Amino acid sequence: MLVEVLHYGGGNVGSLLRALERCEIPYTLLKGNIDGTFPTGKHPVILPGVGAFGAIMQGLEARGFLEPLTQVVTVEKVPFLGVCVGLQVLFESSEENPDVAGLGYLKGTVRHFPTDFEGSKVPQIGWNYIHAQQENAPEGFVYYVNSYFADPTDENVVLYASDYQGTRFCGAVKHENITAFQFHPEKSGAFGHDLLRHWFDALPVEVLK
């Protein structure tokens, strides 16, 4: 019983792995063509992300992850969890790198927080409340570090919403086998760890064998 964590050469992999260990969630680390390990389609997949939209897409491509990831997520419907920019790249495009295409698993774009007023502060760094947009989603405070947020075409995919500087934005998505958090559960204390554990515990038994 384990999850597969994608290591594309950057991001918050270390802190996420430590959180998985604290949550007693077994994992294996995949490094793509660096060591020949790719998503198998037999286990849930986690994509952590810190940094720029374009850099993560470049890292996924450089390590040969794009095709196998698309196969297991969109065809085989393996459970997927994205974190931070790991959520953003699920969409079609981003204002951060307009010339770079995202994975496109969800329709919509990623937008920059408005900064056209006095006192605006971007990036958002710190604790913010998440408001449940789907049933049976626990609410609480989580830790964000983001200048950009996803703007889904279909509002029904939004799992959590938060408010920042007068903008209500997508804090998490959940659609079919895809779940992703804009915030960092691994940096969100006991509540964040509970969210990770809740995601794992809710996985179908057959995908954990």
What can you see in these coordinates?
The protein has 209 residues and is of the alpha/beta class. It has one domain (3-208): Rossmann fold (3-Layer(aba) Sandwich), CATH 3.40.50. The chain is 22% helix and 30% strand. It has 5 helices and 12 strands. It has helices spanning 13-22, 53-62, 66-75, 85-88, 189-201; strands at residues 3-6, 27-30, 45-47, 80-83, 93-94, 108-112, 124-132, 140-146, 148-152, 158-164, 167-175, 178-181. The strands form 2 sheets. The chain has a 9-stranded mixed beta sheet. A hairpin with a 2-residue loop joins strand 11 and strand 12 (178-181). The radius of gyration is 16 Å and the shape is globular. The mean pLDDT is 94.
Order of helices and strands: EHEEHHEHEEEEEEEEH
Radius of gyration based on Cα positions: 16 Å
Structural class computed from helices and strand pairing: alpha/beta
Number of helical elements = 5
- The name of the CATH architecture is 3-Layer(aba) Sandwich
Helix content: 10-25%
Shape: globular
**How is the largest sheet built, in terms of strand order?**
2-1-3-4-12-11-10-7-8
- The CATH topology is what? Rossmann fold
Most strands sheet: 9 strands, mixed
Percent of residues in beta strands: 25-35%
CATH superfamily: Class I glutamine amidotransferase (GATase) domain
Strand tally is: 12
User: How would you state the average pLDDT, rounded?
Assistant: 94
Unreliable residue runs: none
In total, the number of domains comes to 1
Look at the structure and give the CATH class. Alpha Beta
